[in-house]
Design brief:
single chain, 281 residues, alpha/beta, TIM Barrel, 8-stranded parallel beta barrel, 11 helices, 8 strands, 15% strand, binds 1,3-dihydroxyacetonephosphate
Length: 281
């Protein structure tokens, strides 16, 4: 099956009443491990490029990233795909689309409702003409380091505008703010599952949950049956990678085998995390 459009994978997840898991991944070890364990467990999975990592690597990144994902995806038989995460830069989105990204996120969540709709619709117009899917964000998923972000109801997605937003922006999926935040939590998040159910009842568009690191599994299991069809996780996957490198360097003089250990650890984590997606393919 190899590379599949993200909207098709979200459709499968919706039909199975679960969520595909999307991992922020910046290099071969991370991308290869996601697709490998997806294949092993017979589950769909996504990898996502964070534009901040692209900025660190320079302008060639979307092309290199796309090539790596396309080649890795061709090696597996389960539906996998890749996505450009949180981007506000129209030119960078266009560059990713040209490079072969099947899915992009335009994040206008810090803008007014009108500007968010207008810009998302403009991205969707071009992306759809190129056969590419668009994720939007309504409400704003903040940062866990700002302890108040996850509880700030002003940032939460408003049920009464969700349907109009999806219709007017032509997005293919929408990230909702229901109590999560990006990065490591200082206090355990408590998802507003009532709000999630109401949003899900109001819109047909697949819903996305950001800020996945550290959200308790029991809350995720519920959220996945209440309309979340794409679940983003990054911080804990990166942290595990960097901790493994640090530990290895402290304990070994010859660091030649380090990548083997990195992949082993990442794959053990993925083997567990991917169990949250209850569908098999
Ligand atoms: P975490 O880094 O908090 O897991 O969130 C990832 C995310 O939402 C990427 O869009």
């Amino acid at each position: 099956m190899a590379l599949v459009r993200v909207r098709e994978i979200l459709k499968m997840a919706d039909a199975a009443n679960t969520s595909v898991i999307a991992f922020n991944s910046s290099d071969f070890n991370m991308i290869h491990s996601v697709f490998k364990i997806a294949e092993e467990l017979k589950k769909p999975a996504l990898v996502m490029l964070d534009p901040r990592h692209a900025a660190l690597w320079g302008w060639g990144t979307p092309e290199i990233y796309a090539k790596m994902c396309i080649e890795e995806a061709a090696k597996v038989d389960v539906p996998v795909s890749f996505h450009l995460d949180h981007c506000m830069d129209f030119d960078f989105i266009m560059r990713a689309i040209k490079a072969g990204f099947p899915s992009v996120m335009y994040d206008g969540s810090m803008l007014s409702y009108e500007e968010n709709v207008k810009n998302t619709a403009e991205v969707a117009r071009v992306a759809h003409a190129m056969g590419v899917d668009v994720e939007a964000e309504l409400g704003h998923v903040g940062f866990a380091a700002n302890e108040t972000d996850q509880d700030d109801l002003d940032l939460y997605t408003k049920v009464d505008v969700a349907a109009r937003f999806c219709e007017e922006s032509h997005c293919d999926s929408v990230a909702v703010a229901i109590g999560t935040a990006h990065g490591f939590y200082k206090k355990t998040p408590k998802l507003d599952l009532q709000r999630l159910q109401e949003i899900n009842a109001a819109v047909d568009t697949p819903l996305v949950l950001h800020g996945g690191s550290g959200v308790p599994d029991d809350q995720l299991e519920k959220a996945f049956t209440m309309g979340i069809n794409k679940f983003n996780v990054g911080t804990e996957y990166f942290y595990l990678y960097f901790q493994t490198v640090k530990e290895y360097c402290q304990n070994h003089e010859d660091i030649f085998d380090m990548q083997m250990l990195v992949q082993e650890r990442l794959q053990d984590y993925l083997r567990q995390k991917l169990q949250l997606c209850t569908m098999t393919v």
